[in-house]
Amino acid sequence: MTGGDADHKRALAVLVLAAGKGTRLGGGDDLPPKVLLDCLGIPLIEHVRRALAPLGAAETVVVTGYQAEVVDAWLEDAWSDARRVLQEPQNGTGHATRIALDALPDFDGDVLVIYGDVPQLLTDDLRHLLDAHRDREAAATVLTGVVPEPGLLGRIVRDANGAFARIVEARDATPDELALTEFNTGLYVFDAAALRPALAGLTTDNDQGEEYLTDALTSIAGTGGRIEAVCSADPRSLLGVNDWADVAAAVATLRRRICDEHMRRGVRITDPDTTVIEADVEIAPDAHVYPFTHIGIGCRIGAGAKVGPFARLRGGTVLEPGAEIGNFVEVKGSTVGAGAKAKHLTYLGDAQVGAKANVGCGVVTANYDGKRKHQTVIGPEASIGSGTILVAPVEVGRGGTTGANAVILPKDGVPEGATVVGVPARVLPAKEQAEDGDSPAKEGSG
Ligand code: UD1
Ligand code: MG
After folding, report:
1. Sheet of strand 335-336, all strands in order from the earlier edge strand to the far edge
2. Which residue of 48, 172, 308, 344 sits 20 to 30 Å from the alpha carbon of 366, by its own alpha carbon?
3. The one catalytic residue among 133, 288, 344, 374
4. Which atom, in ligand 1's list, is nearest to the CA of 242?
């Protein structure tokens, strides 16, 4: 495959370091490895993969270690063109880079090293770094940022002329070095020929007793290689995830970014601050999302549809044009037809709702029998009365009506055009329907 930015440039290899444990997340047994933590429907590392993809790298190597079999299984499925190498034991970022580069013994060109825990990363950040490296013909280039208090991040030490001198980890730093505000983002480009010998010479002479990738820069400088430290104008997107506060911050940024993209394309979102739209959701322009609404990964929402306030569309839900899902409605694994409505206090699970059907207040599709999930089909223009329970698998025919609080059993369903009432529901004879005038369903809600 051609494409990406690599065409007219030197060859590019990407090394993604993802072997670390994520110690600061506490870690219970059921916690996935850090890079697989969910971030708006996709793992942290999938965000990284997506930022990298437009670069069109010739080679990608991902280093796994902690819970490698879990990360490998994900990679095999979702990032199958990446090579996987196992780092065992995890002896630091320099060690990880060394074994990754060993997987590409003949590679010559630029090596982009990045950590797997930077979900907010933008392709433009990477391009900025690569362009700077190539324009200045550096042997190594590190992307830096400035924040008032870089906390545990490595500090960039510069000499009297402002040129890069070295990176010192916070735990190894003197008080003066700790006061520096320029930090190492953990994104680097190296000339492969300079990087190989530098990695071979790394020591573990530091507080953690690990091989630090950052020391490779000092070593390259020591042999006369040109090192550039390029400062990013907005380093927020480069911050790695180390603890739960970082996870929340990343989710907040990405969530806002996704809402902004939809709004720029014509989707009306009343309050993006309280709206969660996960990755890969398609919303037609002219749909309206109201506050406190959660829309799961891969949902598709048609033009003129309305969702919320306080609605939850779980992953993969489809709302056809003009469908309306209102407050305290959960929709899972379902398709809601054009102009159909479910506006209050309802659960639609594994349901197909036909066009222009009306689902009243407090309707429940009882889709789970304790072992398996079953489908509910609600025909076009059906009217489901308030409090109806549809025990799946069950079908309501076109234009069928259920009375308030009806319980529809699988074997019965609702015949086309019929009105059913009661528990379990029985078909209301045509005579009674005529006498009542109004069908019981009309007591429900619209
Ligand atoms: C690292 C940098 C620090 C920088 C910070 C930015 C070093 C020595 N320090 O510190 O200067 O400011 O990132 O976030 O590089 N990993 C492995 N194998 C290992 C160790 C780590 O693959 O043996 C991976 C981790 O999974 C993680 C990344 O490398 O994705 C960074 O490791 P981490 O331990 O988080 O480094 P920091 O202490 O944050
Ligand atoms: Mg880190």
Report:
1. 282-283, 300-301, 318-319, 335-336, 351-353, 376-378, 394-396
2. 308
3. 344
4. 35
Q: Which of 16, 93, 217, 242 to mutate to test the pocket of ligand 1 (most atoms within 8 A of CB)?
A: 93
**309-to-275, 276, 348 alpha-carbon distances in Å:** 9, 12, 17
Q: What pLDDT does residue 281 have?
A: 98
Atom of ligand 1 nearest to the CA of 208: 8
pLDDT tens digit string along 122-143? Answer: 999 999 999 999 999 999 999 9
Q: What are phi and psi of 52, to 5 degrees?
A: -80, -30
In the chain, the amino acid numbered 72 is: D
Is residue 344 annotated as part of the catalytic site, yes or no?
Answer: yes
Q: Is the CB of 90 under 6 A from ligand 1?
A: yes
Rounded CA-CA distance 405/399 in Å is: 18
* Digit-coded pLDDT (tens) for 57-79: 999 999 999 999 999 999 999 99
Provide the β-strand partners of residue 331. Answer: 313, 348
Output the CATH code of domain 4-238.
3.90.550.10
Beta carbons of 302 and 320 less than 8 angstroms apart: yes
Q: What is the mean pLDDT of the chain?
A: 94
Per-residue pLDDT tens for 4-29?
Answer: 554 456 999 999 999 988 888 887 77
Report cis status (omega within 30 of 0) of the bond before 175: no
pTM: 0.92
CATH for the 266-442 domain, from 3.40.50.1580, 2.160.10.10, 2.40.30.10, 2.30.40.10: 2.160.10.10
